[in-house]
Automatic annotation (TrEMBL):
Subcellular location field: Cytoplasm
Subunit comment: Homodimer.
Task of the protein: Involved in the gluconeogenesis. Catalyzes stereospecifically the conversion of dihydroxyacetone phosphate (DHAP) to D-glyceraldehyde-3-phosphate (G3P).
HAMAP family tied to this protein: TIM_B (MF_00147_B)
Designated name of the protein: Triosephosphate isomerase
Pfam families according to UniProt: TIM
GO terms, molecular function: triose-phosphate isomerase activity
Length: 252
């Protein structure tokens, strides 16, 4: 059985107090309202992680939004996977389109980060997705295949079994333009087929693939009802406790 996951990505929002207070609200609401075994994750800025993990009480898991590709050393301003693990972090978003676009993160760099994240017993939430141009000019299957092959398919089957994938069409992130359930399902099925071709049907069947891109409490039920969609990576709507918890409750 694939895990159902709803992960919030706070991006560079919320000061320390705001983050602690929003997280406390989310934990209380999830504790009271979650009925199923879906997993709730909040990926916060680094400064919140230690405090959030002490407030989480096992109800909500903690994730980071990035980490460095080296174990340690002279990399001023960076954070290592081991440091994340030491504050109770369990997930790390790798290859978000904003990292790819604004920080020039290549598939090869993301492959290194993924390896190190796994080595430190954290779960990568590895993002793939095409731009609007790539969608419009029809190259999107090729783009996604390349991101998978260069970023992930160097992993052993044992390691691949530990990752979570997120399909996030860049044109849908923060734009209010959601992929239709049919568009999203089509790509999720395509990704699963690529995993099957590389690692076999069993692993493909058991890989959790999240959808991300202007997902909210209103469109989540139809998106999450699709056969190959196992939950969401949520940006804007994770900054409001009611909206985020309503998305989680899609799986109740
Ligand atoms: C994201 O940042 O991963 C995201 C999906 O953002 P939004 O939900 O705001 O589109």
């Amino acid at each position: 059985m694939r895990k159902k996951i709803v992960a919030g990505n706070w991006k560079m929002n919320l000061d320390y107090q705001e983050g602690v207070s929003l997280f406390s609200e989310i934990v209380n609401m999830v504790r009271d309202e979650r009925k199923g075994n879906q997993i709730a994750v909040i990926c916060s800025p680094f400064i919140h992680l230690n405090s959030l993990s002490q407030l989480a009480g096992g109800v909500v898991k903690i994730g980071a939004q990035n980490c460095h590709q080296n174990e340690s050393g002279a990399f001023t301003g960076e954070i290592s996977a081991k440091m994340l693990s030491s504050v109770g972090c369990e997930y790390v978003i790798i290859g978000h389109s904003e990292r790819r676009q604004y920080f020039a993160e290549s598939d090869e760099l993301l492959a290194q980060k993924t390896e190190l994240v796994l080595k430190n017993n954290l779960t990568p939430i590895f993002c793939v997705g095409e731009t609007l141009d790539e969608r419009n000019n029809g190259s999107y299957y090729h783009v996604l295949k390349t991101q998978l092959e260069n970023g992930l398919f160097n992993l052993s089957a044992d390691d691949f079994a530990k990752i979570v994938l997120a399909y996030e069409p860049v044109w849908a992130i923060g734009t209010g333009l959601t992929a239709t359930p049919e568009q999203a399902q089509d790509i999720h099925a395509f990704i699963r087929a690529e995993i099957e071709a590389k690692y076999g049907a069993n692993l493909a069947d058991n890989t959790t693939i999240l959808y991300g891109g202007s997902c909210n409490a209103k469109n989540a039920p139809e998106l999450f009802a699709q056969h190959d969609i196992d939950g969401g990576l949520i940006g804007g709507a994770s900054l409001k406790s009611r909206d985020f918890v309503d998305i989680i409750k899609t799986f109740n």
